[in-house]
Each structure stands twice: as structure tokens, then as C-alpha cells.
Amino acid sequence: MLSKRALCIQNMQRYESIFVCPFCAEPLTVEDSGRIVCPSNHSFDIAKQGYVNFMTKPVQSMYSKQLFEARHAVISSGLYDPLQQRLAELAVGELVLDTGCGEGSHLARIMEKRQGFGVGIDIAKEGILAAAKFHAGLVWCVGDLAKSPYRKGSFDTIFNILSPANYEEFKRLLAPGGKVIKVVPQEGYLQQLRQQAFAQSDKESYTNHQTVARFKESFSSVEVERLTYTLELQKELVPKLLEMTPMGWHIENQKAITLEEITIDMDILIGTV
Ligand SMILES: C[S@@+](CC[C@H](N)C(=O)[O-])C[C@H]1O[C@@H](n2cnc3c(N)ncnc32)[C@H](O)[C@@H]1O
Ligand SMILES: [Zn+2]
Question: Which ligand 1 atom minimizes the distance to the CA of 148?
Fold first, then answer.
């Protein structure tokens, strides 16, 4: 069996033409040794865990290993399966990029449901390390959306799930006929948790109006679909749900929280250029 590193080298060589140097935007060559190099000699190495770090300078992420492992546990439980199913149906074309992919489970589970090849990028190394650990066979990159290592027009579908966006960059990366698909929470998202954690505070309510308005300004054609469902929650996932956001749901007595079910309520924004 191929090592994770060898599999990553093979996949990056197969799709070599989509990668460019994040320093100088020249094409990158993926050597058999796992070294990736541009004509000006900027170079990157495929790590033994099976990912590549394209950061041009180190950044401190507010997202920890513990947060990504909590997200992994919650997403693997199937809580987001109906969302992933819909995203797989909406995606078009062969090459799919997930921007702010975190620990990679959404992209991996979406690509299990459709043909094509998936690439994930996140600025948090801990997220990409978890993605490479759990999901070999896709290409995982540590990188900044503001300086992404991809050639213009490379991707047929660009996902942006519960993550910050960079619409100018998304439009540069989109192939003709491609779609940008952004997922933002709607007001009922995790409402049972919010009600117990933040009763009577303004964090209890949430609107996505500004985010939706900015998305609509950025694309010439936009569709919005709302997806809402409530699922039973296994007891052991309650602490994981509390750990999975950087806001930390700062709650004094976490043990007092009891949740039997949890609501997922999302807007799916679909933009074309
Ligand atoms: C709330 S998490 C969502 C992660 C994943 N999409 C999910 O739903 O589980 C937001 C993610 O955006 C990433 N992120 C923030 N700024 C970024 C940037 N400039 N470039 C790439 N990723 C970024 C963070 O590191 C984090 O993993
Ligand atoms: Zn370069």
C-alpha cells in the first residue's frame, strides 16, 4: 500500500497544472521526491502525514487540535449528512475546492457521494493535519485564501462551509460555468444549545443578513436554499458540540446542559459569475 506521502505526491502530480507558487504565481512542478518547486526556486515539501504547507509566513490560528477533533467527532456522527448530501447534488464538474475546510470531513464525505477530485485548503495547520490523518486520497493544503496556491480557473465547484470567504479570490479560481457554494447558519442553527447556554443574552439570537447581502453583491446570479432538520443527539456528543467553536460557548456549568435533539438550520448560497 502507498504511504500517505506517496499517495499525496501521486495525486498532486496528476493535478499538477492547478498549482501555482503562492509567492510569485509561477507554475509549480511536483517532483517524484515530494519536493514542489517553482522556476524562481521557491520550494515546498509534501509532509510525511500527506499534506503540503503553502504558507508564505507562519500565522497563529485560534483553532486548536482539540477543536478540530471535536468537529471531527460531531461531523462523523452523521449530524451533517443531509447537508453533505445536498452539497454533493449541487456541486458541478470534476475539480472541487473546499475553502476553510478545517479537518476535512465535509469535503471527504461529499466526495464519497459524487465523482471528481477534492482539494481542501485551510490556514490552520492543526485542521489540515487532522484532515490528512482521517482522509487520505484527497489533497490537503495549509494555505491562506488571500494567497492561494492555485491557478486561475482551476475549480468547477468551490465550497465555503461556515468559514470566512474571499470572493475576489473565489472568482479568480472558478472555471467557466463553475459554482461557488457557501453555507451559513440560519437562526435555528444549534438552537437548543444556544438557548441553554445563552438564555437572555444577545448571543442567543443570530442573523446572517449581512453575510447573505455581501454574497449577493459579489456574484451576478445567486440562489439561496434553506435546509432545516432536527436529529436526535447522542449524549457523548454534547461536550464535543461545546468544544467545536472558537467562541467556546463559555458556560460555567457545562454538565447542566442536557440536549436530546439538535437542529441544523442553514442557508446554502449558490453563486455563479
Ligand atoms: C468554523 S471553521 C469551519 C471549518 C469547516 N469548514 C467545518 O465546517 O467544520 C472556519 C475555518 O476557516 C479557516 N480559515 C480562516 N481564515 C482562513 C484563511 N484566510 N484561509 C484559509 N482558511 C481560513 C479556519 O482555520 C477554520 O478552520
Ligand atoms: Zn515562486
Answer: 20
Residue of the CA atom closest to atom 27 of ligand 1: 102
- DSSP H helices in the chain: 4-14, 65-76, 81-90, 105-111, 125-134, 167-173, 191-197, 209-218, 237-243
CATH code of 158's domain: 3.40.50.150
CA neighbours closer than 13 Å in the CB half-sphere of residue 6: 3
The residue whose CB lies within 8 Å of the most ligand 1 atoms, and thus the one to mutate among 110, 122, 190, is: 122
Domain of 44, in residue numbers: 4-272
Q: Which amino acid is present at 135? A: H
Atom 10, ligand 1: residue with shortest CA distance: 163
pLDDT block averages, 10 residues each, the chain of length 273: 96 98 98 98 98 94 93 97 98 98 98 98 97 97 96 98 97 98 96 80 76 97 98 92 77 77 97 96
Number of structural domains, the chain? 1
Give the 3-state DSSP-derived string for 161-218, with helices as H, strands as E and coil as C.
ECCCCCHHHHHHHEEEEEEEEEEEECCCCCHHHHHHHCCCCHHHCCCCHHHHHHHHHH
- For residue 117, what is its C-alpha cell? 477530485
Q: Which residue matches cell numbers 497563529?
A: 60
For the question of whether the overall pTM of this predicted structure is more than 0.85, the answer is yes
